Each structure stands twice: as C-alpha cells, then as structure tokens.
C-alpha cells in the first residue's frame, strides 16, 4: 500500500462515486440499525443533506456483552432496503470471517472495526472479496501497525481499501479517544490509499464532531464518517456522539457539501 505513496488512487464504490477522487465523501447514519423506520428516516435525512453513503451497524462490537448487540442479518436487510430506497450505497461492519458472506450480500463497503484491526484472519479473508474495505485504525495501534493491517487485505488481491482514523487511546479523558489527524494525514502521504476520519467515535461528544470534521477536510483527508440519529435521545448505542438531523444539515452546509436548494 506504500507503492506510489502520496498519490491517492481513488477507490470506486459504484460508477460515479469514488473515495479519494477529489470531492470529499461523507458517510453518515446511525451507530446501529435499530428498526426499519429508524434506518429509513436516517437514510432520508443524510441523503437530503448531501451524504454519499449510508452507515449503520448490524453486527456490533459492544464493550459490554449486556449492551445492545445489533440486529444481525435482519438489520443488514433493513440497511440495504433504506440504501436502495434513497439511492445510497451502504457501509456496515463485519466482525468475523464466517460472516463476510452474509454481510457482503447486503453491503457495498465492508467495515473492519477498530477492535478488529489486527484480526488477521478477518483481514486475510477480506483480501479475497471484490468489495471495498473500510479499515478503521485500532485505538492502540501505531500508524505502522495500521498500514500493515491494510497490507494483509491488499496481499490477498483486494486493493480497494479505505483507511479510517477513529481516535486512539491517550491520557486524555475528556474526549472518548484522541482523534489523531496528524497520523491520518501521514497515512495519506505514506500510501496511495484514500484516508477518512471518524470524529464521532474519535471525540465521543457531539459538540466536537462538526469542528473536527471540518478540520479533517481542511487537512486534505478524503472524507468523514459521521454518526447521525433521527432522535439521539432514543439511540441504542453511542447516543452522546450522534448528531441530530439539524446538526448534520448545518455541518454539510458549512462543509460546502449540501446540495443546492431547488
Ligand atoms: C462503528 O463505526 O460503528 C464502530 C463500532 O466504530 P469503531 O470500530 O471505530 O469503534
Ligand atoms: Mn458507534
């Protein structure tokens, strides 16, 4: 992935939509798919505001085994349906090699979560599929370890990899993690892969998400992933970091990515 370093090779999601092609890509949606109504409403909200892809977790890597674990395949179906209805490709996490087949049936982009960044069997198996992989950085991983993780996917023949900086563990406790934008920019300089940032997980606080999203794009990253919930007070996961529809709309205007009004 370090070949041709510094010149980003775009990763095509579908004809007319690529990450790393110049125009920043916004991936938005709830942390988790919770119901058909919730994901459909989220999809409409983010599409109207100008997002290019819809996100939503169905297989959730939760810190506590007693927390909501996601809806599994039923959630994938709801996500794919909301994506189809709004015309948005969908991104969702795959946690285990045994679930790649089912996730790939519904998803346009398969996400490797931060906790699985060094799940080498998962990475190796994703190297054999022909869909893009969004590879999140582990909270305890160095830049070099992150790039080697990408190398595991690429080695199998799948070069369609998008790197995602989502915050690392530091001594700071005010924020959930520390969004390491400098390493994200370094990843762009050291590889040919597109790199995006996820300030939602990086900060864990909705009031910091918009400023850090602006910072990420100002630094030249290829996009952002943002958690948006129709009603964050009702969110089953990551409620504190979810943007409201109004927050998201405002941010998209600030970023100059909101569609022109008809
Ligand atoms: C997510 O994007 O839903 C997620 C769980 O993020 P991370 O793996 O970065 O914690
Ligand atoms: Mn989340």
From TrEMBL:
Highest rank taxon of the organism: Bacteria
Gene3D superfamilies: Aldolase class I
The keyword Magnesium belongs to this UniProt entry's keyword annotation: no
Domain (DAHP synthetase I/KDSA) ranges: 15-251
UniProt keywords, alphabetically: Transferase
PANTHER family on file: PHOSPHO-2-DEHYDRO-3-DEOXYHEPTONATE ALDOLASE (PTHR43018), PROTEIN AROA(G) (PTHR43018:SF1)
Annotated NCBIfam families: DAHP_synth_Bsub, PRK08673.1, PRK12595.1
Protein name: 3-deoxy-7-phosphoheptulonate synthase
């Amino acid at each position: 992935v370090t070949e041709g370093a510094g010149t980003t090779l775009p990763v095509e999601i579908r004809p007319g939509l690529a990450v790393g092609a110049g125009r920043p890509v916004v991936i938005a949606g709830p942390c988790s798919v919770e119901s058909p109504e919730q994901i459909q409403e989220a999809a409409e909200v983010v599409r109207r505001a100008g997002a290019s892809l819809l996100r939503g977790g169905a297989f959730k890597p939760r810190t506590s085994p007693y927390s909501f674990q996601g809806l599994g395949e039923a959630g994938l179906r709801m996500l794919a349906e909301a994506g189809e209805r709004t015309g948005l490709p969908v991104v969702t996490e795959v946690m285990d090699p045994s679930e790649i087949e089912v996730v790939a049936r519904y998803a346009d982009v398969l996400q490797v979560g931060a906790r699985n960044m060094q799940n080498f069997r998962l990475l190796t198996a994703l190297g054999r599929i022909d869909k893009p992989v969004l590879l999140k950085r582990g909270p305890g991983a160095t830049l070099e370890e992150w790039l080697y993780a990408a190398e595991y996917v690429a080695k199998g023949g799948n070069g369609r990899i998008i790197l995602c900086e989502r915050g690392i563990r530091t001594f700071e406790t005010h924020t959930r993690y520390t969004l390491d934008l400098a390493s994200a920019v370094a990843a762009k300089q050291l590889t040919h892969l597109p790199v995006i940032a996820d300030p939602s997980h990086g900060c864990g606080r909705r009031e910091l998400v918009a400023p850090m999203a602006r910072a990420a794009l100002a630094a030249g990253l290829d996009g952002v992933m943002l958690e948006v919930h129709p009603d964050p007070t009702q969110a089953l996961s990551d409620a504190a970091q979810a943007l409201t529809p109004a927050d998201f709309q405002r941010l998209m205007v600030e970023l100059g990515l909101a569609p022109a009004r008809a």
